[in-house]
Design a protein that fits this description.
Elements (H helix, E strand, L loop, with lengths): L3 H8 L13 H8 L2 H14 L10 H20 L19 H13 L4 H18 L7 H27 L3 H28 L3 E5 L5 E4 L1 H7 L5 H6 L9 H9 L9 E7 L2 E13 L5 E10 L1 H50 L6 H31 L8 E4 H18 L3 E6 L6 E4 L1 H17 L5 E8 L5 E2 L5 E11 L6 H4 L22 H11 L5 E5 L3 E11 L3 H7 L2 H4 E4 L5 E5 L3 H13 L3 E5 L2 H11 L3 E5 L7 H10 L8 E5 L2 H9 L6 E4 L4 H12 L3 E3 L10 H10 L9 H12 L3 H14 L4 H12 L3 H14 L1
Parallel strand pairs: 7-9, 15-16, 15-17, 17-18, 18-19
Antiparallel strand pairs: 1-2, 1-5, 3-4, 4-5, 6-8, 9-11, 10-11, 11-13, 12-13, 14-20
Helix pairs in contact: 2-4, 3-4, 3-6, 5-7, 6-7, 12-13, 13-17, 14-15, 15-17, 21-22, 26-27, 26-29, 27-28
The protein binds adenosine-5'-diphosphate.
Adenosine-5'-diphosphate binds next to helix 15 and helix 17.
Length: 795
């Protein structure tokens, strides 16, 4: 402790201001930048000298007194008094510097603090500020000058409150204390009311974990006590033990960030769920004084959570059951439908049918396709609902895709005498990266609707390059923003109905008109467009027509990559290396023969079997390089076959490709390891199929440019040119006879051979032939048939 007066007396120096005057700013800057330092310094002295027993236990209260001292000091350093020295006539109660001391003196007096206690503590404040001088970069003379200034500052404060205190009579002091006591009691009562009326049970425990006080709800819920507060305020301890609380407190770790836990506790109303949290109580000297534990009853929330969990489980089970049901039904419905549609086509070719029979067969066929469409849409919807629908983008020739679509839909438009216009922006990129199948699905649905709901006029598919196009994709490819719009001059949709058209199974407008449809098309289209990162929009006016549009950001790809990736079937003619053996196992003749002819054409040695048992025997006898197997089969299914094969040492690493029409099989395959190497869905996507064969057999494909293609790129430029004109030369009907006949018996091998023949016949048939080839790859027999009919009619 340093006291200037005594040190001066000791050194025998006179009480005068040091001769050298230094600017006061450096001292001000030092004080202003060391608030925290000063706070810990005074705390250090207060703890060391045991002042904390009498002062506030809140650390922030100490900060407030440091600020309260520094503020007048900083003001005085900026605008110093006429003299820092003291004189006998001075009224320190009027001194600006002493104002803080007077205020503090009053506050401390009402808390019952005595003058000696306050004055001695003030000595330590003074010391803390003097200590701070050691941190400044001052010369010894400068430091001495600042020491003197600080002493005079604190002298004034002390003189100020001593003068104020001594002017205060004992009676006044007593009155002050009584007022303060009343306000403290009121404050206490306020917090007590809150404490007692809390819905949470609150427990206070001391350092030894003894219960010292609990609130009303805690007493009611966990004890038979009445008036626990009375005991506490009467100074009596609660002789109460709650085993769960003792256990909880023993394991309570205050350093854990989230100390809340949930417990199922015994109460006077039976067992209930509680969320428990605790906080240690510390005083300013960081001395631990006990705990407060708060328990909130969360039984209702827990019950609701359990109910919700159960409901979710049941909904998931129901959803799973629905998926299984849909998958099974679609598989079961498709099979007889293929028969119905196939035989209808065969019957329609009979030469001696009456017009009435032709008409009736047409109706059967239309109903069949309608049903097939419905099944596909329901399946798509269930995939969307269970987040199973994924996009498979790849390089696509955009103008060809759009032209192809228009060509397919053209016959329908012609039937109704509607003009179908394809309006392509010449700035569109030729090659883009997109899921061709899904983009076609959306546009096909919009075009079909437009034609369906239009009696006269036009339907336009326009694709515009948007002005804010040409962004750079993170992978450095160029991104084009394009807007695809389908506009019609049809019946339109009322404002009230427009809200509903994207909902499943909603058909709006004049429902008595019996338009064909399921009400699912727009729901699925909207979801697909969302998957593509966009939104399907509509604008419509009743009686005037409708407009549906969506914008896509598509990466541009070089046209060279398109012919290789999206049309490998055109180019693959075999593979490199030794001849490979493939075993095809499928109980359905049509699926088996399709795969056999496809693979034999590529020079594979193909064995086949109609079920797993037969497949196993064939595998043992012929040791194939690859097994392609269906999953649902009689006698032994694909799962058991694979298990049996994997149990034999020679087939441990045999590549197995599973193939199935069933949606749920795909899900199972994705979730678990059934021993297959790859899975592919039906109908088979040929590029995907070839990619998987290549991967499993480690082969390279032998490819050849199709005979019609011109290495100089003439074909590409021809495609681009025709993209904006849509002019095809159609072959005469006699050249299409071969395809028609092959179509009747579903012989796709011959269809492809015939298409090749057409391409060679005349290069102007190229676009028509390419369209047929694309449709052939999708086994879209009806669309092939429509296209041929179109050629026949145009002839
Ligand atoms: P649907 O299979 O019935 O066509 P969609 O989901 O594709 O199912 O369409 C839902 C409904 O929206 C249709 O039934 C029709 O009422 C209305 N709608 C769709 N497109 C058009 C359009 N271009 N013009 C008029 N109404 C339309």
């Amino acid at each position: 402790m340093s006291d200037r007066t005594s040190s001066e007396e000791r050194s025998g120096r006179e009480v005068t201001q040091p001769s050298t005057l230094y600017p006061l700013d450096p001292l001000g800057a030092l004080v202003a930048s060391h608030e925290d330092w000063l706070m810990s310094r005074i705390l250090y002295y207060a703890k060391a000298q045991h002042y904390t027993a009498y002062t506030s236990t809140l650390a922030e209260a100490w900060r407030a007194s440091i600020c309260g001292l520094s503020d007048p000091l900083l003001t005085a350093l900026k605008q110093p008094p006429e003299t820092w020295e003291l004189s006998p006539e001075m009224d320190f109660t009027q001194d600006a510097i002493a104002a803080f001391g007077i205020l503090e003196a009053k506050r401390h007096r009402t808390r019952g603090i005595t003058l000696p206690l306050f004055l001695s503590l003030m000595k330590y404040y003074r010391q803390a500020y003097l200590d701070l001088l050691h941190l400044g970069d001052f010369s010894p003379q400068q430091s001495e000058y600042y020491t003197h200034i600080l002493h005079r500052f604190f002298d004034r404060i002390e003189l100020g409150f001593c003068q104020e205190w001594s002017n205060h009579s004992e009676n006044e002091q007593l009155g002050e204390l009584q007022t303060k006591n009343r306000s403290l009691t009121n404050e206490k009562n306020k917090y007590l009311t809150i404490f007692e009326s809390l819905n949470e049970a609150v427990f206070f425990l001391d350092e030894q974990h003894n219960l010292v006080n609990i609130n009303e709800i805690a007493a009611q819920t966990f004890t038979s006590l009445k008036g626990s507060g009375k005991l506490y305020y009467a100074g009596q301890s609660l002789t109460l033990k709650l085993p769960w609380l003792s256990r909880y407190i023993k394991t309570f770790d205050p350093s854990r960030e989230n100390s809340e836990i949930e417990k199922y506790l015994p109460t006077n109303q039976g067992r209930r769920w509680f969320e428990i949290k605790a906080k240690p109580m510390l005083d300013v000297s960081e001395k631990f004084t006990g705990f407060v534990v708060i328990c909130a009853d969360i039984t209702h929330r827990k019950l609701a959570e359990a109910t919700l969990k159960e409901a979710r489980k049941q909904a998931e089970q129901a959803n799973q059951a629905k998926s299984v049901f849909l998958a099974t039904m679609s598989h079961e419905l498709r099979t007889p439908l293929n028969g119905i549609l196939g035989y209808t086509q065969l019957l329609k070719r009979c030469p001696n049918l009456t017009p009435k029979q032709q008409e009736e067969l047409n109706i059967i066929q239309q109903c069949g396709y309608h049903l097939l469409n419905l099944i596909n849409e329901v399946l798509d919807l269930s995939k969307i609902e269970s987040d199973k629908l994924e996009l498979y983008p790849r390089p696509v020739h955009l103008p060809s895709l759009l032209e192809g679509l228009v060509a397919i839909i053209q016959p329908k438009a012609e039937q109704k005498d509607i003009d179908l216009i394809l309006d392509l922006d010449p700035r569109l990129p030729l090659g883009v990266y997109v899921d061709e199948k899904r983009l076609k699905q959306v546009l096909m649905n919009l075009l079909n609707n437009a034609i369906k709901f239009t009696k006269v006029g036009t339907v336009t598919l326009s694709v515009q390059h948007l002005p804010y196009s040409l962004k750079k994709h993170p992978n450095l490819s160029v991104l084009h923003s394009i807007r695809l719009t389908v506009k019609d001059t049809g019946i339109g949709i009322s404002n009230a109905d427009i809200e509903h058209i994207f909902l499943p199974f909603e058909q709006v407008g004049d429902t008595s008109a019996h338009y064909e449809g399921t009400g699912l098309g727009l729901t699925i289209s909207q979801e697909l467009v969302k998957l593509m990162g966009s939104q399907l929009n509509v604008r419509s006016e009743q009686g005037q027509g409708s407009e549906f549009w969506f914008d896509l950001d598509l990466s541009e790809v070089g046209v060279e990559s398109i012919s290789e990736i999206s049309k490998p079937a055109e180019q693959i003619i075999g593979y490199t290396g030794r001849k490979q053996k493939i075993l095809v196992i499928d109980d359905r003749l049509e699926n088996r023969s399709l795969l056999i002819s496809l693979l034999e054409n590529l020079d594979f040695i193909v064995y086949s079997a109609t079920n797993g048992q037969e497949g196993l025997e064939q595998a043992i006898n012929n040791l194939p390089d690859l097994v392609i197997t269906d999953i649902k089969m009689p006698v032994m299914d694909g799962f058991s076959l694979t298990r049996n094969l994997r149990n034999l040492p020679q087939f441990k690493s045999l590549p197995i490709l599973a193939i199935s029409a069933s949606f749920s099989d795909l899900e199972k395959f994705e979730r678990s390891d059934f021993g297959y190497n790859e899975f592919i869905g039906k109908p088979i996507d040929l590029p995907e199929f070839f990619a998987k064969l290549q991967k499993l057999l480690h082969i390279s494909w032998l490819t050849a440019r199709p005979p019609d293609s011109d290495p100089s790129g003439v074909e590409d430029s021809a495609l681009c040119e025709s993209a904006s004109h849509s002019t095809w030369k159609l072959p005469p009907p006699e050249e299409l006879l071969g395809i028609k006949q092959a179509l009747e018996i579903g012989d796709f091998k011959t269809i492809f051979q015939e298409i090749d023949r057409l391409k060679k016949l005349d290069h102007l048939y190229l676009k028509f032939a390419n369209r047929l080839w694309d449709l052939g790859q999708e086994f879209a027999d009806q669309e092939i048939f429509d296209l041929i009919e179109l050629a026949e009619q145009t002839d």
